[in-house]
Amino acid sequence: QQQVKQSPQSLIVQKGGISIINCAYENTAFDYFPWYQQFPGKGPALLIAIRPDVSEKKEGRFTISFNKSAKQFSLHIMDSQPGDSATYFCAASNRGSTLGRLYFGRGTQLTVWP
Amino acid sequence: GAGVSQSPSNKVTEKGKDVELRCDPISGHTALYWYRQSLGQGLEFLIYFQGNSAPDKSGLPSDRFSAERTGGSVSTLTIQRTQQEDSAVYLCASYKSQTNTEAFFGQGTRLTVV
Question: Which of A1, A50, A67, B71 has the most CB atoms lying inside 10 A of its own CB?
Answer without folding.
Answer: A50
